[in-house]
Amino acid sequence: MTLLNAFKQSPPPPKVGLILTGGGARAAYQVGVLQAIADMLPRRARNPFPVICGTSAGALNAVSLALSARNFQEGVRKLSAVWENAHVNQAYRSDPVGAYGNAARWLASLLLGGLGKRTVVSLLDNSPLAQLLEDSLPLHGVQRSIEAGALHALGITAWGYTSGQSVTFYQGVDDIAPWKRERRIGIAAPIGIEHLLASSAIPLLFPAVRINREYFGDGSMRQLAPISPALHLGADRVLVIGVRRTAETQPDRVKVDSYPTLAQIGGHVMGSIFLDSLDVDLERLQRINKTIQMIPDERKKNNDMTLRQIESMVISPSVEINKIAAQHAHTLPRTIRLFYRAIGAMRRDGSALLSYVLFEEPFCRALIELGYQDTMPRRSEILQFICAKQPVGLEESKRKSDWVRTDFEDFEGQ
Asked: Which is nearest to 199 in space by CA: 209, 187, 213, 185?
């Protein structure tokens, strides 16, 4: 066999899917992970993730990467600039009139059963986020990335309030077929601002968004199989960037005397919406892989089985993000601090809810540093997983973040 024939017959490299989960302000952690991966790759390297899927705040990160797929490091740099300079007033109105006025109108709308000239459908006014996305995301660039061969597909997931379906709107190469499964479907569509706002519309906090004939909300709601869209879009293996620390042991059961605050209840609700389904889906994927391993290759071939093993890697915080949020609660604007104090979010037991809405620079920068530090020690493992070559030297990508590391050690001791 000639060298040319051997080259022609060698299998193509696997398509690595990147899954960016939801989690509000916690999605800043994903940026730190992406910064570390960018530092591992050669300068001006293309996007190492042909398939990118995002949900909720992860959808905003996903689109930013897709737009700069021809230069991964440039895309990460632009994304980092947004998160490192984040302020609450870029996500929702934090001025007294915008915050309290909208909340008062929302409560009045509930009491009046939706009567009045303008029915307020959310507790917070996220019009600043819509304007930020309009100004900073030239979404026509997604198709350019696809045509350049730097991107295979981009998927953004939202939840349909009427149909009860988890809908993944995707833009990719022509041969990707739509899919329909129990309570989840995939629809080809040019990704627009409306898809991003819908995917990140946290229930009650932000308004639902109408797309075609239906209103959609946060894509993390009842997303029973968050890994599935990446596989339908062609991924052969998946890298998942989570936003919750993996529990090593079951939490202790302790006796409490006080009734849970609204913030405590809200924090648990947010956790159920954003986080729990991913753990279940990863466990399901591992079980399927083990089952496939037990089937002899000959039997798979004779029965024309289409099942395949899917490798997965998960990068998640090494520190409880709730604790970091509690340390940065004071950075919120005074109007919003008063608003959250009223529901108990400024207390330590309310920091879970706070961690989803604390879009402030110090908190986001701390999460970015944490993501970077969690990722760099896994350098060899990650480069092998994404089939990357020509890694840069360790000294070239070293960062001065000792002060952050010390702070994280303090969090662990609390």
From this structure: 209
For residue 242, what pLDDT band results from cuts at 50, 70 and 90?
confident
Residue 361's H or E segment, with its range, is helix 361-375
Cα 148 to Cα 131, 169, 374: the distances in Å are: 29, 21, 32
pLDDT value for 224: 76
Question: Cα(322)–Cα(276) distance, rounded to whole angstroms?
Answer: 16
DSSP element (H, E) containing 210: strand 209-211
The two structure tokens encoding residue 200? 């990140």
Task: Break the chain down into helix, strand, coil percent, rounded to 5.
Answer: 50, 10, 40
412: confidence class by pLDDT, cuts 50, 70, 90: very low
Distance CA(271)–CA(290), nearest Å, equals 28
pLDDT digits (tens, 9 = 90+) for 353-396: 778 888 999 999 999 999 999 999 999 999 999 986 544 444 44
Give this prediction's pTM.
Answer: 0.82
Nearest to 166, CA basis, from 237, 206, 214, 235: 214
Residues 286-317 have pLDDT tens digits of 777 667 667 766 665 665 556 677 888 999 99
Alpha helices by DSSP H, listed for 41-92, are 57-67, 72-84, 88-91
Say if CB 185 and CB 178 are below 8 A apart.
yes
Token representation of residue 404: 């952050």
User: Minimal CA–CA distance to 411: which of 317, 348, 346, 319?
Assistant: 319
The first and second tokens of residue 346, run together, are: 């400024």
Distance CA 39, CA 29 (A): 16
122-147 burial by CB neighbour count: b if 16+ within 10 A, else e? bbbbbebbeebbeeebebebbbebbe
Q: For residue 158, what are its two tokens? A: 């939202």
Q: Which amino acid, 239?
A: L
